Amino acid sequence: MTSPRMSRRAFAGVALSGTAALAATAALPARRAHATPTRLPPLDPRALQAAIDDLEHPPSTAAQLRVRGRAGHWYGTSGVADIRTRRPVTTRDKVRIGSITKVFVATVVLQLVAEGRVVLDSPVRRVLPGLLPTRFADVTVAHLLNHTSGLPDHVGVPEPDTAEEVFRHRFDHWTPREWVATATHGPLKFAPGTRQEYRGINYVLAALIVDKVTGRPYGEAVTARILRPLDLAGTVVPGDDPRIHGRYVHGYLQMTDGSLRDITSCDQSSSRGEGDMVSTTSDVDRMLAALFSGELLPPELLQLMFTLPPDDVRMLDGSPARYSTGLQQATVNGVTLWGKTGETYGYKNAAFSTRDQRRRFVLAYHPTTARNGQESQTIARVAELLTRSPGAEDSATRA
């Protein structure tokens, strides 16, 4: 079988396939220290609009930015949702949110922990018998959620190098068991809990745990526990449906001849539980606000989402760990943010907030290129404007 996944060699630190590191780690550098937020700048509507109006860096068809929190509100759009009809982007338009899916899955798993139905220290093999080899016996549920499992790289998964190859494989389908099997060859890359490596397969397994414990597909649990209680009517766990229904922003890829081809409909089975959800910027903002406010988890479990692994647990490149249980930490201009990025072909997103929610933002935009190294420029521009105090020197910690 083949999969419509982007090359994991695309560029350093980018999570296009859901199995590599995040795209925004260069744009949103992380720090181990819990920095005290600097004075947040006032919102500059003109500068924010200019930041998303720049649809050349990277080449994109549309962008929208929603800023909320006690330090000010702003919303803006740029570009078109459909290049054929030239329909403008609106706040109701759905987008593929990629790895922001992981925030929903981690929240549901922690809810099951709160109910005593899942134990974080339980070996994954005990919860999902027969799925992982015996040599993976030390991998626990907690290791999945904070990316310290050490699971091997995928084997036998083609990596498209061109947009044309992506389209040839866009509807390839994987069962969860088949996809997990591609990441069970060879030994663990490191002893579980000793290093950190961002891997989408961790959350494919986490979603399977939700399936097993609740007795229904993980999407039904997300819907019952998060979407309906928060009235997130624009958010969908699509299952095997490759389409987006209702109003949505189309995603495009630039072909070798320079033309744009619609990539909106695409099989997401290899991203199940780690990057397959569809939502809106308003729904993602509502989810983030509810989560940070304690509406979804008890305090002791919510705190896990704001707790990085111990100092001696490093990323594979030796840099400090930057992923907690379900979230990513990033510090820009001395302001510590928590949240998540996400992407898939034609869609890129970032949803971050200060812990006190003085400043929260959700960005969705639509790059048409996959591997030129510029895809995080929009996140960088926005993060700079939302964190840099007037006249302050750039104090962002570089990864």
What do you see in this structure?
With 399 residues, the protein is of the alpha+beta class. It contains eleven helices and 13 strands. It is globular, with a radius of gyration of 20 Å. Helices cover 24% and strands 16% of the residues. The longest helix has 14 residues, at 101-114. The two termini are 36 Å apart. The protein has a seven-stranded antiparallel beta sheet, sandwiched between helices.
Give the topology.
Layout: H1 45-53, E1 60-68, E2 74-82, E3 87-88, E4 95-96, H2 101-114, H3 124-127, H4 141-145, H5 163-168, H6 176-181, E5 195-196, H7 201-214, H8 218-227, E6 252-254, E7 260-262, E8 278-279, H9 281-292, H10 299-302, E9 314-315, E10 328-332, E11 335-344, E12 347-353, E13 360-367, H11 377-387
Helix pairs in contact: 1-11, 2-7
Task: Give a short overview.
By secondary structure, this protein is α+β, with helices and mostly antiparallel strands. It has helices at residues 45-53, 101-114, 124-127, 141-145, 163-168, 176-181, 201-214, 218-227, 281-292, 299-302, 377-387, and strands spanning 60-68, 74-82, 87-88, 95-96, 195-196, 252-254, 260-262, 278-279, 314-315, 328-332, 335-344, 347-353, 360-367.
